[in-house]
From TrEMBL:
Segments forming domain TACO1/YebC-like N-terminal: 5-76
One annotated Gene Ontology cellular component of this protein: cytosol
Family matches, as NCBIfam families: PRK00110.1, PRK12378.1, YebC/PmpR family DNA-binding transcriptional regulator
Chain ranges of the TACO1/YebC-like second and third domain: 83-236
Database matches in InterPro entries: Integrase-like_N, TACO1_YebC-like_2nd/3rd_dom, TACO1_YebC_N, Transcrip_reg_TACO1-like, Transcrip_reg_TACO1-like_dom3, YebC-like
GO BP of this protein: regulation of DNA-templated transcription
GO molecular function annotations of the record: DNA binding
Protein name, per record: Probable transcriptional regulatory protein ENV67_02950
Keywords carried by this UniProt record: Cytoplasm, DNA-binding, Transcription, Transcription regulation
Main location: cytoplasm
Intracellular or extracellular location(s): Cytoplasm
Recorded family membership: Belongs to the TACO1 family.
Pfam family, one: TACO1_YebC_N
Amino acid sequence: MSGHSKWSKVKHIKEKQDAKKGQIFTKLIRELTIAAREGGGDPETNARLRHAIELARENNMPYENIERAIKRGTGELPGQVIEEVTYEGYGPGSVAIIVTAATDNKNRTTAEIRHIFTKFGGKLGTTGCVSYMFSPKGVIYVEKDIGEEKLFEMVVDAGVEDIKTEDDSILITTDVKNFDAVKEILKKNNVKIIEAKLTKIPQNYVHLEGEKAQTFLKFLDELEEHPDVQDVYANFDIPDSLLMEASNN
């Protein structure tokens, strides 16, 4: 299993426990604004906006905040011009990295992201240098109680690509176009969703252990803590024990 998939779920649960609401809200507001600007303010016809609204509600963002962010995106309210930027490169251990950011100052953000890469022995590359190693997918983690066989029968006709039982959950992988349909089926059947998101899944992985793994996780943490960074995708594979230990620090 992808270490980053595991790390994503660990971070998702930890964020809910730690409630770093200020930082989470800032990222969500920027995503709402960009989604509305790019695809319009109607979530029925704008899938990206629909997903952003769902995530905002999961994090208990007040409706007024969601509405204002959307209206800034559509131009109904004034606000900063937020630009979406994607960075690609290699982190410590030669792990391929894709970083998506939302910023009101591209030059500043680029310099700061480059500094983080350099600090940990990584290097920013050109557009397209690693993105070909990743495939866009939908991932949904659900509670394990339902059982893999019953779950398969429930969603098999919705275009699910893979179902895998893990230690404490079941992971469903879908094509991007089938992601919403699978989520709706799960909701209608009262299946508890732990996390659901659109992501980029690596086609191959770089295994890290010991000091190399610890250095990489510090690098990953610093990237994800940057206020302009929205998402980080990486093709690392690290033992679960190290991921859990790092998430508790």
